[in-house]
Write a structure and sequence with these properties.
Distance between the termini: 40 Å
Number of helices: 1
Radius of gyration: 21 Å
Helix content: under 10%
Shape: globular
Largest sheet: 8 strands, antiparallel
């Protein structure tokens, strides 16, 4: 199931509104610099960010368009993947129409650094399929600007001359041509993690249920069990590991450091051995967070959970930023980290971001909102966070007012200490951002969608059909134009 879908369900549960991710442009004029309203930081200092550009899609009336992930390549181009109904227009003409009224196609689209659509591809099942479901979940870019995606199709599709059904990996060139496709044989659970290492090898991590074959022969997993698999940049299988756990386990995020060591995060709910001895859940059947490090060849280095847990914990996202491994997720109850207790809201779960050394030692942590969906670092040592928050939560601006039932926040922290640099919040409802990408120079690309009137800076937008989602892409937070805070 795609990450964007999971986030939309989470937002529905949190705020009574189904929201998700998506992007694409009907080319709009660039907005003026410093068009954002002032942002209040933890220090109370106000400053402006640069709103570089906003792009939106035009949907088929009474149909939705969602996205799942966004990435920036080495040239600063934005690449988005996801799913759509009907035949929406990203700016270059309608995408291929879904063959059934009750179905979806997948898309991948690329935009230049200044927001122009370079190309877009849509694909799905052949005519005659009754309820086709095709989507792309995650996308990564390598040093050569090739783009690798994981996707799924419920019915046969043809991609780059290859017939596929079920889960797959596919790689596109920087011009949008299919370079190779690899079938992933098995029933996969949850939202996967995908990353590229310094050799352009690909590492996929997630959960698999039942028999599977990643390319190295049959594997068994029952119930859902976490896996890691590594492929070359040409899609050749290198190695895989499926972890035999007492109950279920899954990985939701994967990252690499400068030496290509792997870091995976996820959860388990029964006694589990990820290579370093048995880890125990907070209690049998209750989700419990795990983070583990492996060598580039898949050998276990260390694995751990959290101390003094009293209830649910899980990690969904991870990045290696300088000398720190930064992960995010959510928890209920309490746990101990870096010598202090962390306590969730009494009426449910809270979001959390934690930083460890690359050896797995505690450094710092913070509670933020109701969930932390994404952690993205850059070469300067900054880390950007994305997630939802509820009225009364303090994500750095003081308690959020009750004027909205749900908020989304984007925040930057300094990785060594966790000090907050800036934070911006958005009322949930008509607008959602559920995926972000960082550029080494400091720019952010936020992918999302809207189903009612929204305003960003000096621009206002209305959806093609009220109540149905059009995609939105926003490039902003340009570091070179930022007014720095004292001491920054």
């Amino acid at each position: 199931m795609a990450r964007g879908f999971i986030m939309r369900v989470a937002l529905f549960l949190l705020g009574g509104v189904v929201l998700g991710v998506g992007c694409g442009p009907l080319v709009q004029p660039p907005l003026e610099p410093d068009a954002l309203p002032p942002t209040t930081t933890a220090t109370g200092t106000e400053h402006h960010e640069e709103l570089t550009w906003v792009r939106r899609s035009v949907g088929t009336p009474f149909h939705d368009m969602y996205g799942s992930d966004v990435v920036l390549d080495a040239a600063g181009c934005s690449i988005l993947v996801g799913t759509y109904e009907g035949a929406p227009d990203l700016g270059g003409g309608p995408l291929p129409a879904v063959v059934s009224e009750n179905g979806t196609n997948a898309f991948i689209a690329k935009y230049s650094r200044d927001g122009h659509l370079l190309w877009a591809r849509g694909f799905g099942s052949a005519p005659g399929t009754l309820f086709p479901e095709t989507y792309l979940e995650v996308v990564v870019a390598d040093r050569h600007r090739n783009l690798t995606v994981r996707g799924f199709s419920s019915d046969p599709i043809v991609l780059g001359g290859h017939s596929l059904q079920g889960f797959f990996l596919a790689q596109f060139s920087s011009e949008g041509a299919v370079r190779w496709v690899r079938q992933l044989r098995g029933d996969f659970d949850g939202s996967p993690g995908l990353v590229v290492d310094s050799h352009d090898d690909l590492i996929l991590a997630g959960g698999v249920d039942g028999p599977a074959d990643f390319g190295g022969g049959p594997r068994e997993a029952s119930p859902v069990e976490g896996f890691i698999v590594k492929y070359s940049r040409n899609g050749t299988w290198r190695w895989d590991r499926v972890f035999d756990t007492q109950d279920s386990s899954t990985f939701g995020g994967v990252a690499v450091d400068a030496l290509d060591s792997l870091y995976v995060v996820g959860s388990f709910d029964g006694d589990a051995d990820f290579g370093g001895g048995v880890l125990h859940p907070v209690w049998p059947g209750r989700e419990t967070a795990v983070v583990a490090r492996f060598t580039p060849m898949g050998a276990h280095v260390w694995s751990r959970t959290l101390a003094s847990m009293t209830d649910l914990t899980r990690f969904d996202t991870v990045d290696v930023v300088g000398r720190r491994v930064v992960m995010g997720g959510r928890f209920a109850g309490q746990f101990q980290f870096a010598g202090r207790p962390f306590t969730a809201r009494p009426d449910g779960a809270s979001g959390v971001v934690l930083a460890m050394t690359r050896e797995g030692a505690d450094v710092w942590g913070q509670t933020l909102g109701t969930w932390l969906w994404q952690v993205r670092g850059d070469a300067t040592g900054a880390v950007t966070l994305l997630g939802p928050a509820a009225p009364g939560d303090d994500v750095g601006t003081g308690p959020l007012p009750s004027t909205a039932s749900l908020y989304l926040f984007v925040s930057e922290l300094q990785t060594p200490s966790g000090a907050r640099v800036w934070v911006h919040t958005f009322p949930g409802g008509n607008l959602s951002f559920t995926s972000l990408a960082r550029e080494p120079a400091g720019a952010l690309v936020l992918a999302g969608e809207f189903n009612g009137p929204v305003a960003l800076g000096t621009e206002s937008f209305v959806p093609t059909t009220p109540g149905f989602y059009d995609a939105l892409l926003w490039r902003t937070f340009e570091r070179s134009r930022r007014v720095k805070l004292p001491g920054q």
